[in-house]
Amino acid sequence: MVRKHDLLKNVLIDIEEGIRDGINADTLAKKHTLSSIHLQRLFRLTFKQPLGAYIRSRRLTASLESLLSTDSKLVNIALDYGFEYEQSYLRSFKREFGVTPGNIRKTGQRVKVTLPLDLHGLNSPILDVINEKNWA
Questions:
Q1: What does the radius of gyration of the chain's CA atoms come to, in whole angstroms?
Q2: 23 touches 14 (CB < 8 A)
Q3: Which of 45, 51, 54, 89 could bridge 83 with an S-S bond, Cβ 3.0-4.6 Å?
Q4: Cβ(114)–Cβ(61) under 8 Å?
């Protein structure tokens, strides 16, 4: 049986590695042989936030790099980061950062981003993922 700490550590790693692959609560639950409801409840109890909201925030944060460093169309960035429609990406982006992706691209305005979660500052592979992606 997998310990709660190890399970959540693996879930956090899977989220970071799957940001561009459409990772969601159902795919995570299936991979870790849990019910989606149980995984979401465990995540919320541990991190005090919904799993889906955390994944969406991490996707939006990750999309900032593409937004600022490429000339890709917004629809392509939205699709690259798991949003089915450009409009849902724009709406989520504005809700998350308080500004549209177009304004960020034009002005380079700084926004508060969602950094990857860590399990109580313990040494874990999630820190390696953070450092590799320069989010630290």
A1: 15
A2: yes
A3: 89
A4: yes
Let me know: does 56 contact 82? Beta carbons within 8 Å.
Answer: no
Angle of the 36-47 helix axis to the 4-17 helix axis, nearest 10: 100
pLDDT tens digits for range 16-70: 999 998 899 999 999 999 999 999 999 999 999 999 999 999 999 999 999 999 9
Q: How far apart are CA 29 and CA 38, in angstroms?
A: 8
Q: Which one is the CATH code of 4-132: 3.40.50.40, 3.40.50.20, 3.40.630.40, 1.10.10.60?
A: 1.10.10.60
Reference 40, options 28, 30, 31, 50; nearest CA is 50
Q: Where are the domains of the chain?
A: 4-132
